[in-house]
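Problem 3 from the worked examples.
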Amino acid sequence: MKRVTQIKILKELMDQLDRKKNIDAGCQLKNPTASYVNRELADREWTEFFRTHPQMVGLSGDLPRPGSYLTLQDFGVPILATRDKKGVFHAFLNACRHRGTRLTSEQCGEQEHFVCPFHNWTYKNTGELVGIAREQDFGNIDRTQFGLIELPSAEKHGLLWVHPDPNGNLDPELLLGELGPEIESWNLSQQVFTDESILNKNLNWKLANDTFGETYHFTRLHKNTVSRIFYGDALAYETFGRNHRFCFPTRGIDTLRTKPETEWRMDTGAAVVYYLFPNIQLVPSEKQITLFRIYPDPNDPSRSTTRIRQYFSPSILESIDEAKASGRPVIDASTVYDPDSRGGGSIFGPDASREVFISTLDQEDYSMGESTQRVAEAGVLKHLIFGRNEPALHHFHATFRDALNLPPLEQIQEP
């Protein structure tokens, strides 16, 4: 992120905190609760946003070395993603061309060849068919015509992209627009994957995304957790086509007021969240990255899966190892919400990060979302309200509705 952008955002957040006045989207909107339960709409979303739309599946660090691979099946097509010996990223249908058997069910690993467990047909991690068991009995076959089915793929700005349709169009620059260079400035390609958590919840995938759409709830729902680290009721927000940037202040922003602007750091004063259409929430910082990929259940509009992957900079992981070796404290789940515990040169490690982003999301935010889902299913409450201070919710729902050629949300006439 450009330095001038950082300063502008930090000043905007300080001004909102000083004036005790949050961002204003200009109006209130009514959002029909049917959008969270309607099966026909859910089927359209599954087709338009997941089966036939490019998918951001991870960061470069998910394939850290030549020979690395990972598998996915979150959007209806089994994917085998590989990095070949030259470091090039590929994506294939995870299926043998003989009888369609999945080549591997392992989530990730390292190998240059994949052997079908059914009949031992063998493929290179570049997709070529290089071995057929007892070919003299099977019959001659043109191996060049029966390699793995390759899917459009791209590695750009530290992000891995796959299109589930072999004939689909994949253009990361078009998908990211002006955000591409800014996202690259966070050095995503250098981050090291540390762990993944999976939340299978009883709430629609859009309700899960709504969780990331406002900070209005921080001092109410999270008064003993997240609110001790971040301020609510202040937001710097900007849209970039179908995507947006969402920034809110940390308690550390107060320490910047006594320092010259040349010493202001975004990591000290604010948290940054990027929404990437249709289902990605990306939280970057200088030290770590948290990636949220949110998927609907194709068979049930009331269920969704959130995959949460954490990545840390090599320098932070090295510092954590050094701290443990020397007996210096590494903050854990029991101290993460205690501001006094974060002094003395202690290190904020993966366990503490998991407590902030995952436990709070699961036990507090998604619990509220599941409650809303039950109400939506009852059909009595016809609309939810998106306030003036919730512009990300306005944008997210306006964007997906526009993509499906649905009418815009109704504006509430304020007295």
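Problem 4, a separate protein:
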Amino acid sequence: MGTKTFERLRESALDVEPLVCARCGFCTFVCPAYNDTLWDSQSPRGKLYQLRELILKNQPIPEDFAERIFKCTLCGACQEICQTKIPLLTFWQKVRQEINDAGLWPKVVHLLDESIQSSKNIMDLDQEDRMLWTDMVDDIVEDRIDKPAKVAYFAGCNISFKGTLAPIGENTIKVFDHLGIDFTILGEEEYCCGNPYFVGGEWDKAKELAIHHLNKLKDLGVKTVVFNCPGCHRAFNEEYPHMLGKESVAGIEFLPFSQFIAWMLREGKLKFTKEYNEVIAWHDPCELGRHQNIYDEAREVLNAIPGLVLREMKHSRNKADCCGGGGLLKGTNPLMSVRISGRRIEATEKTGATILASECPSCMMSFMDGIENTGKKIKFKDLSQIVVEALGL
């Protein structure tokens, strides 16, 4: 049993949010965690009701409640549909911060924290190995590490250290090279972006990472940073300026891969001419879509590829179902995560598409697990892979 109550929520006036909840239940039916368990105590409405009782009675945070708060992908579907406009994404982060204060973080989150503090990455691996993902494009990047340039590529921990995800970074570098872009990579000076802290409710430690990265980018004269990871992009684009002030990121733009490619298409610097005869269903990553309202550019890119047929899923854009990989759920409850991804795989089949595509390393990991778990024949491809194949690189 935790000994602390919800002190931070009271200080920030967020303790009124559970009282605002109309208990209408709309959030229940869009919540991937609820749809996995069918327990109302696991739904946003159920958790808000429990919070209301704990706050009103000034009771300590129970361990089982802390566990339920982390059975959540932070996908934002509850906030999107909330009839009383509760800022639930921020609210759940604040609740997780309270849970951390009470010493009730899940063990895996503590391990992530220890890894980042000791090695600057979520894998607890040597930073000297952070550039291993570039082995297949070493001839392109060997002279670009820590080099002044206006464009930077930020790979993130997953692409850097998980071999199955390395091709995502390789694809982006191939596109940079194809376009003749002068770019830089931070190399060993690229640390974890801080997203695990943001979704875990620990801003103080994330602040150190943010300051390091922004200082480094400014030292190198960077004006544009390109990301394949929506979590990294959201950290830089949303959390850093919110935490450090908008002036901290003045003069630097942060672009997900889809926005960068769409920009190149509009500028006439990139053109697809090769036939790409595939039927593709597009999955909107939560941290790009609902979190940042970025939907159109990926579709613009796919629709520019000759022969490609784009199919929309039943639940897409701001109503898209989650892949199951967000909010640290893949670490805290991997079985729930894979069941959630499996439901998205089954929904993809109904579109008649042969390929499920997205632009997110976490989505890729989740869907690969979901495909294996369901035994479905559909393939997954990251947007970077489709672009490289369509360009014939």
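Solution to problem 4. Residues 7-105 form a domain with the Fumarate Reductase Iron-sulfur Protein; Chain B, domain 2 fold (CATH 1.10.1060.10). The chain has three domains: 7-105, 116-264, 271-391.
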